[in-house]
Amino acid sequence: MRRLIALAALTTAALGLVVPAATAAPAPPRTGFEQTNGASWTGLDEEQAFLAAVDKASRHTAVSRIGESVQGRPINLVRVGPAHAISTVLFICSQHGDEPSGREGCLSKLRDLAFQRPDPKVRYLFVPTANPDGRAADTRTNAKGVDINRDHLLLVSPEAKALAKVIKDYRPEVIHDLHEYGATPKVYDKDVLYLWSRNLNVDGHLHDESVALSKDYAKPHVERAGQSTGEYGIWTDPVTGKPIRQVAGDGQERILRNTAGLKHAVGMLLETKVDAKDPAEAADPALNQRRRVQGQLAAVAGTLKLVADRWVSIQLAVAKSRLAAVLGQGPVYFGGADNEPAKPEDVDKNPACGYRLTAEQFAAHREVLGLHGIFSVSAPGGRIVPRHQEAGKLVPLLLDPRADFGLVKTAPAPHCV
Q: What CATH homologous superfamily does 42-323 map to?
């Protein structure tokens, strides 16, 4: 064998052949945050260049423009994995423009997934910057002062409309919403906080999967990363640790984690603490910012593990939720949450089969109904929106006079067939 190797070497040299040296694969693109080791957040122009580089270098991604902000900035959707798959997981990042750590986690995670062998069962969708005007201005709201995370029913903002269309078109089974919070007062003080779909209209099977995502997957993954966790919305006494107040708009259907459940997805809100946790972070903003992004990434890892472990269970829960909506099962709740019993007057045990819209009402609200995937049928003088449809969980919350955040107050229809 050694003689053959030596002969081959002599032949190559005699013929003047050049054997190219092995070259390493080019390094995957890095975010602006990564390039500065956490000293600065990735700029919006850097994001565009980064996504273009990932899309060019990976065979497993597709970047599309799903809408524009109030000021005309692009809202991007990144798909990682097969165009069609059994499960779809949606990560929505930076709805609040002054909460950037989730956005950084999304950018680096979509890149990492893009350069791995894809799971044929799952496609991952990322909206890295759901509120680009807010990110540019470092504000919570969009350029018109709308809190996008309170706009998932009425859809008055172009940003919320773009997200609603993604949910309608792709029908994700899991929606992970990434946020941050200020830790003042100190009665509300953990590195990472989580919360699930609490609206009482969310199907019970889906609610349980949402709780599992928060408590059994996000929480332990974050804690293994060395960060403290807690339930979002519970203020605790800093001395005794006992709950003293509940905040967070728990059952509000207009908040994405609840809207997700009403649209048949496992929903979770994830919040990292902005404030410095110790003197070292106070002295080094980059240390603080890296900790926040690491918390987001740990929670995202929990979501990926949930889908890997429980994708069959999630599929069944989603199917049961959709079927229950089509059949019109269960009462309709206009108040309360899973931690707050509904008042008797807020429970309709025999809800109407649908709601009557005048022609003028339908013309005014047709776009929003369509973005929610709600269909209607023609009726004398207008339209009837039946409750027995896949989007039926939303119908009373949009059209019933008792709804707190409704689109328009309409009359229940006595007959829907």
A: Zn peptidases (3.40.630.10)
